[in-house]
Amino acid sequence: MTAPSGTVDAVVIGAGPNGLVAANLLADAGWDVLVLEAAPQPGGAVRTAEFVEPGFASDLFSSFYPLGAASPVLRGLGLERHGLRWVHAPAVVAHVLPDDRCAVLSRDIDETAASLAAFSPADEDAWRREFALWQRIRGDLLDSLFTPFPPVRPGARLARTLGVADALRMARMITMPARTFGEERFTGAGARVLLSGNALHSDLGPGQSGSAVFGWLLCMLAQDVGFPVPEGGAGALTAALVRRLTERGGRVECGREVTEVLVARGQAVGVTDSSGERIRARHAVLATVPAPTLYGGLVAAEHLPARLLEDLRNFHWDDATVKVDWTLSKPVPWLNPQANSAGTVHLDSDVDGLADFGASLATGRLPENPFLLLGQMTTTDPTRSPEGTEAAWAYTHVPRRMTWDRDAVLRHADRVEQVVERHAPGFTAAIRGRHVSGPLDLEEQDANLVGGATNTGTSAIHQQLVFRPLPGAGRADTPIDRLYLAGASAHPGGAVHGGPGANAARAALARAGAAGAWYGRSMRALHDLIYR
Length: 532
Fold this sequence. Notes:
18% strand; alpha/beta; seven-stranded mixed sheet
């Protein structure tokens, strides 16, 4: 039976990947689900358009999805049956050093090992040992990542698989800087720079505690599943999620900004949109907005514990971002042809340079030598642009504390192009079109990217696991009964994998299930312990 207008089982705020994953899981359980999105189209930071030049499909924000391909959450949705097709570049990552040597990471471990052996013969076997460890713990580790913290059952399986000695060594690695970990495990510059460069996909420099696990995880995923992209553009992933949801009766309504979560007697009962219309929720409200947007924003401060609001003042964002998209008349003319086949190119710092870059950001200074992550999209997916051309982009992190007016953003974009030109002479001559997005532009296009922060909160260890987004908040449940934090501010954090959305959906189903009353009392007791 169709619900009366204005009343649904669950309202999901935001039609990004986490919101759409949550809505799909609730719809699978037979719930009547309404997803409300402020933007004119769904997708959040997973969208594609011809915004640089007609005929060139450019991703507005994110492009490569190693965690998406490996995620048990996304795999469980069977999105390939709804039009999603993953495609790969011939090589995964090429890190171009200042002297134009390349460390190349391929899904073929023999190719990766040979590239690293060119820097140090001993690193061929060292890399194979790391990948053997990954293969041994892969399933248990991924299950641990994508469940609420603490991950009791998958964590116990992981501990049994590792054994006491290796579990202690893994715990140590989780706390380590990528630079130190690389020096312990490898002797050559190639493997070390791949670890540190991949760590900087987060906001952690190679000298910061906790960066080792990010670098190691992305390297192992690159070796295992690669850095795939959806054929046709990132928006194809969004389209598959929307198709799956609508086939199950769920609805996505765009251009409807939620301005308030309605709370009665300590329980979320619905939302109000910007037109003033109220939508009632029988069972749950799931919000994919950042924690600071939800607490004291969509939820009035009067409904929240004072200590939560106090903790919220210490919420730390990740770095800001400047992104440049190009349409090119030909592929990037790299001096080192090893970079030609990589979907993702890192340039142009060694580990010392990466450490300097991270230190500059940590102290609020504009890095003298920007570290770039560059995507060669037509190389990865030939459908993105006409034959013989290239759709490409690069982004770099910049300090949040600076004023990023349009002139400052354009000057930094010119610096980005100078770095590429240094390693690919003729690059700038090949530019047909350019689109530059600064921190405020990114936020304007997706309100969740506050100040150009793409991770919705720092990846530093003090704001991960049980501390994400606030101390004691490693679950999707909030101090408001039947309200769930479903976005990247929640554990397990940023990247496109659906983990926060899935955790929120499962929590909502548990609260509404046969043991719901017990579950609700348990969550209230937990929040009373933490916040009162």
